[in-house]
Design brief:
This protein is an alpha/beta fold. Helices cover 41% and strands 17% of the residues.
Length: 169
């Protein structure tokens, strides 16, 4: 399988953690199920447009949903390549056991892992986000205008000239 991809073939993602989502951690909520459906359909449309590499930031919430959508897409199209962009090796250490299990299951199914930092630093999340943007031509966001990491990543992507696909949570 090809493991070198151009920026033009690559998509990244930024979105909210469960605490910022209207449904919180309730993934059975109709709005959450609809967002997951839309994420998959966008990933599928991007595949049809020639995108083959999908970079996931591996955070709880929307990053997880995006990774799962990309994995489902790879089940259909074997030439999809999924990279986990991980801010630090301890990213999931403080998460609840069920969240850690889901995280490590997703990691085990990704084609590559890129660690930005060995240990947590104040800016490792921002550096991870910049790495993803710098590697991509398209960013998909779950964003409704609120201040935070998704806003900063989206603004950086805009400055870098990426195509931006925004979804409301």
């Amino acid at each position: 399988m090809k493991t070198e991809f151009t920026r033009q073939q690559t998509v990244c993602f930024s979105g909210y953690r469960p605490e910022k989502l209207p449904w919180g951690y309730d993934e059975t909520d109709t709005r959450c199920r609809e967002l997951k459906r839309r994420l998959f359909h966008i990933a599928e449309a991007l595949y049809v447009a020639g995108k083959r590499k999908f970079i996931c930031g591996m955070a709880r919430g929307c990053d997880t949903f995006f990774c799962e959508a990309a994995l489902t897409l790879r089940d259909i199209h074997a030439d999809v390549f999924i990279e986990a962009a991980i801010p630090c090796q301890t990213q999931a250490n403080a998460w609840a056991a069920v969240q850690r299990a889901r995280y490590f299951d997703l990691l085990s199914r990704c084609d590559a892992e890129t660690f930005i930092s060995r240990a947590y630093t104040r800016d490792c999340m921002m550096q991870r986000n910049r790495y993803m943007v710098d590697s991509s031509s398209v960013i998909v966001t779950v964003f409704d205008g609120r201040f935070g990491g998704t806003m900063a990543t989206r603004k950086y992507a805009e400055r870098c000239g990426l195509e931006i696909i925004d979804l409301m949570p």
